[in-house]
Sequence to fold (243 residues):
Amino acid sequence: MKKLLTILALVFALSWSLPASAQEFSFGADIVSRYVWRGFDFGESASIQPSLAFSHGGLEIGTWASYATNPGSADANEHDLWIGYSAGAFSVGITDYYFPNATHDDHDHDHDEHEDEEIIGVFDFSGDGEGAHWIEPYVSFGGTDSFPVTLYAAYMAHNDVDNSLYLNASIPFSVGDVEMSFGVGASAGKSAFYATDGFSIIDMALGASKSIPITDKFELPVSVSYILNPTHEKSHLVFGISL
Fold:
């Protein structure tokens, strides 16, 4: 994992040697009524989700976070890093999921509830569910005009004792001026991470988005998603605003 951090640092350093015209930075934030990821509600709180990314050609390096607005849901806060490369419709990359408020007590169900909890530090790359980081390589196919289906597969390679495999397929479409999408995601096998005993559908999502004109020069992108987790018999309706 230290090698991964070294590679990321070198890529960031080398990026500054590129011509300014070849570099592109993007940033923004979403405000969502709930943070629902792969069919699971993290924190049961409205969340603010900032992002920052650098791209050059097919290379992209970025960081994304989710912070619950309810202080009592701070355990669900998340801060991720990713690096990816795209060539045509295909992309490969790796995501580092980091949970800044995770404690060793979160992984020890026999821990005395009255004993002080120990926050896992950001440089703790321990495995077997004990560390602060969950590392997941992924590969995706973004669809083409003749086959507009997005396919995605991700393998939790570090800190997950089951090395859970997640699969997703989605298709975009439109109804009038509303952009729509429908996707299905699954845990591919037995996984404590997704609480599944075998292949299981864990999220079915119908999304709708459009931009609402505010002024002649500014539009506000809004979205609504209906998400069903049939395996765990949960449903969620999430509203979001993008800035």
About this structure: Residues 128 and 159 are 5 Å apart (CA to CA).
